Amino acid sequence: MLRHLFFCSLGLCVLGARADIPLDISGFGTLAIEHDGQRGADWRSTSEEGVGVGRSSDSSGAVASLFGIQADSQLSAQWHATFQVVDRELSNDSFGPYPEWANLRYSPSSNLHLRFGRISNNTFIMSESREVGYTRMMLNLPIIYVTDPIEYIDGGDASYDLRVGDATYHINLIGGQSDLHLTYAAGVVHYHFQEEGANLSANWHNHSWRLTYNQARVNSSGPLLSLYEAGLDQMSAAGVAGSSVIDNSVRFQGIPASFISAGYTYDDGRWWVQSEFAHRDVASQLIQSLYGGYLNVGHHWQDLAVYTEYDHIHNSTGYTLPTLSSSNPLAAVVNGVDSGLTQAQNINALSLGLRWDIKNNAAFKLEYTYFIKPELSVGPFINATSSFYSSSAHVQLIGAALDVIF
User: Fold this and answer.
1) 3 state SS of 13
2) Cβ atoms within 10 A of the Cβ of 92, count?
3) In this structure, is residue 85 part of a structural domain?
4) Residue 395 belongs to a domain with what CATH number?
5) Looking at the domain assignment, is residue 18 inside a domain?
6) Could you give the number of structural domains in the chain?
7) Coil, strand, or helix at residue 370?
8) Of 214, 161, 139, which Cα lies nearest the Cα of 367?
9) How confident is the model over 20-56, as pLDDT tens digits?
10) Is the distance from CB of 87 to CB of 96 less than 8 angstroms?
11) Most buried of the four, 29, 135, 206, 252, by CB within 10 Å?
């Protein structure tokens, strides 16, 4: 990981050495260790990670750690360029650098901004800075952030700022596409998203409000899904009972999806309150529809802060698919995939945390999370055993991290 980051940094420094290109280079990083003593499933910090902490290992220093380098260039009074590289754990327990941002911003006026290229998604309050742990109070992102795993899109957005009295309003329109590779126990699935949406935020004194609506078309592919579709086609052709029900419930191409979120933040320098609600609706049982929210409350004492957070996520509807009875070996493939698709993600969690701002660019965090998982649910966990899924469970996660910006 550090080798990857070194070469990315070297390339940016060489670019910055050219006198005719004004370039500001900054960076951020999180050194974190997470501990989860249960062996029933893995907790992970991002949707791309194929393994986590829990079943795969008691403790891990890779799950929540990352490093990033950002280069900014004010090309002219109206044009600005940004390039950001992030190095973190992706899949198969391996690290790799990738461009999180790579865009040009055109500002014809002080309150109108147009960006083109790879930009951050606009779903949540912390979407613009979700990789920079130092900018948020909590160590781990709220659980509902898994409801929209798209962190960036290749496209563009338009933003307009309006000030009325003591209030400032921000309107953002976004559109583009994104690709996501998610690793499951049975294989890797590739998702392609074509997305457009809008958000409106308002700031007034110590209060901030935010409302977002995005819609997307989702295409999915991969060796596992190809085998699944072949098996389902054969079952349907043979007239196997239940195959038509599955065929009507599970779509792979052109899946309509929508996402809505609402958030509120209050911060007067001593007390902090942040809350978000989100709902994901997908017209295919391949990706479950979910809703949930969180409430984070904290208090500052100079360089120290303590906080507590309650998280909840729940399926919008129950998911059931019939079990196919056939001697065809592909029936087992269909049944195996369906068993994963129907596993609910219901969970409740309570977190307690401490943040200590050691310097003006470094913060130490300690966080304890207690998950309450009902039976017949996997919550946000992956690689779950059958006993973990079928029974209720109380899972404890302890994390410590050093967040820096430079």
Assistant:
1) helix
2) 10
3) no
4) 2.40.160.10
5) no
6) 1
7) strand
8) 139
9) 668 999 999 999 999 998 889 999 988 888 888 999 9
10) yes
11) 29
